[in-house]
Amino acid sequence: MTNNKNGHREKNLVVIQLSGGNDYLNTLVPYQDGLYYDFRPNMGLKGDDLIPLDDRLAFNSNMGPFKTLFDQGKMAVLMGIGYPEPSRSHFRSMDIWHTAEPFTSSSEGWLGKANSLIDPEGRNPITTVNFGRGLPRALALQGVSVASVGALESYGLYTGLAGARNGDAMLDTISRIYQPMADGGFPSRRILETGRGMLDGADLLREAPANYTSDVEYPEDNPIAQSLKGIAQVMSADLGTRIYYAAHGSFDTHTNELVNHALLWDQVSTAVACFWEDVGQLGKGDETVIWMFSEFGRRIADNGAGTDHGSGGAAFVIGDSVKGGLYGDYPKLALSDQLDGDVRFNTDFREVYATLLEDVLGIESEPVLKQKFSTLDLIRN
Predict the structure, then answer these.
(1) Separation CA 169–CA 151 (nearest Å)
(2) Do 40 and 25 meet the contact criterion of CB atoms below 8 Å apart?
(3) At what angle do helices 223-236 and 257-281 cross, to 10 degrees?
């Protein structure tokens, strides 16, 4: 493992997107603040629904494995993370997180740009691997190939075709379609690049499960656990992948939140615990960092059965090299401190991105973020 420009050992980044807007205040609960219960007479968590972290804050009780990582000093909890002039639109807010552009619209993903700096000549078609359907905008950049994987074992196999000969014929046809052409001779350069990347990466990724052994039992009915198992399989093959991406949700808990939010956090925390045990068995704990975020938090006041779109959220950085603890300001719930009924953000997410780019991926952050942001003291050398 080489060193980056700051003398930090280069690491791999695993991104987990909590889609839908995770409820900050019922994830990291200010259980000693009476205002929390005043604003949430129906949704406030107490008693056995809490796992205290200190004398002010507690995890949701369905985050037990996170408490273990926190106590081990391997988890940084970022309170009040967000961006200026917050949007309560899922689509706009997620675009902002994906492009790191709060004030303009962009199609260039921050991790797509990171990929282009890690592998400027595009030699490795699987520098970035996404586990899930479609391509998150965070990974999109013209000229950058990203593999998007549903089931790792069947990636690129065209399993809907009957017979191996038909599959081989389809691959041969697509391979000829994706031959390089003049820029004006193809309707979409991005389609060409994505298609070639799929073909180039398919054989590499299909081999990963064959060489993977583990005694960690990932729950089969847990989608995010299965995605993280796939990430562990690719990691074990040492294919040069540096960025891994997976999403889970929906955390859009307008109604029946107490049931749905509990289930979601049970799934996520169980999946992360399995994955981190696996990473340790692979001997990659020191070189792997998990970044977990959601597009926004929820309103401070409940709506009776759930919570509506808000701002100011909680995010997590996990790893053996992470300086664990609480970062940012304790949630301020007084009316004078609120932003139109929301928690105000106090940590700009681009400071976290700058930290991940420089201290994890080992690249300059300014070309990606278009300006220089301060980094946080989150990662050990």
Answers:
(1) 21
(2) yes
(3) 20
Q: Which residues make beta-bridge pairs with 79?
A: 314
pLDDT of residue 158: 40
Which pLDDT belongs to residue 152?
78
12-151+216-369 is classed CATH 3.40.720.10: yes
Cβ–Cβ under 8 Å, residues 24 and 312: yes
CA-atom Rg of the chain in angstroms = 21
Distance CA(232)–CA(236), nearest Å, equals 6
Tell me the pTM. Answer: 0.90
Domain edges within the chain:
12-151+216-369
What pLDDT does residue 170 have? 47
Q: What is the DSSP string of 202-270?
A: HHHHHHTGGG--------TT-HHHHHHHHHHHHHHTT----EEEEEE-----SSSHHHHHHHHHHHHHH
Q: State the first-to-last Cα distance of the chain, in angstroms, to the nearest integer.
A: 12
Rounded-to-integer distance, Cα 74 and Cα 71, Å: 8
Centre a 10 Å sphere on the Cβ of residue 345 and count the other Cβ atoms it contains: 22
Cα(295)–Cα(293) distance, integer angstroms = 7
pLDDT at res. 210 = 85
Task: HSE, CB side, 13 Å, CA atoms: give it for residue 56.
Answer: 7
Which residue stretches of the chain have pLDDT < 50?
157-164, 167, 170-171, 174-175, 177-187, 191-192, 195
